[in-house]
Predict the structure.
Amino acid sequence: MSVCDNYKSVEEKVIQACKRAGRDPSEVTLIAVSKTKPISMIEELLPLGVRDFGENKVQELTEKAEILSPEIRWHMIGHLQRNKVKYVVDKACLIHSVDSLRLAEEISKEAGKKNRTASVLLEVNVAGEESKFGIAPEEALPLAKEIAGLPHIQIKGLMTIAPYTEDPENNRNFFRDLRKLSVDIAQENIDNVTMNVLSMGMTGDYEVAIEEGATHVRVGTGIFGERNYSI
Ligand SMILES: *Cc1c(COP(=O)(O)O)cnc(C)c1O
């Protein structure tokens, strides 16, 4: 199967999941996670109208962004170090991985220098996995309130990386929890904080994530095939 065939098949499953959940497919953005994959594979998708791509490393994102069309919307989905913020803040349309006030301060500062306002999500470790980045669910509201006071950053919602599992049903409750958390935070009506984005679901579990309210799913392997980290 070609990258385009894979993409279309994932897109069809997105539509079916929306139908099951009584949702409009236009509410869900399918982000093609192109990390480790060559420019040529990204270019294959452009004629289909695909514009949302996800990367987890600053250097890879900026290199690809320099070469490819400025129409592409780059999503920074990986852990972000403060010293790399300046390279990515004007390249990424959305930073999915904010997990501390210090990182948010750096993003606000660098965005301000470039006369921009950065859009970000708070990354929540809903399953409490030791190995994962992200804040605990109970930290999300206090952190959102602190970040809301910064001038050049806007929180748009929440992101989570659910545990790896063979059976996506195992993650349904985690997605439900993230959704509930976003509703709770939205009810606080904090200035500069909206909760319209729920970034959750990857190749193994995006259909369940959509059934539970995902607005952005991040699919890599299902579109580009397995990643080879040994080369
Ligand atoms: C790699 C990655 C994905 C995509 O994972 P697949 O299982 O290949 O779909 C999604 N989100 C994040 C944060 C990632 O790092």
Observations:
- The pocket of pyridoxal-5'-phosphate is lined by residues 33, 35, 56, 77-78, 161, 202-204, 218-222 (CB under 6 Å).
- The chain has one domain: 3-224.
- The first helix runs from residue 3 to 20.
- Residues 3 and 224 are 6 Å apart (CA to CA).
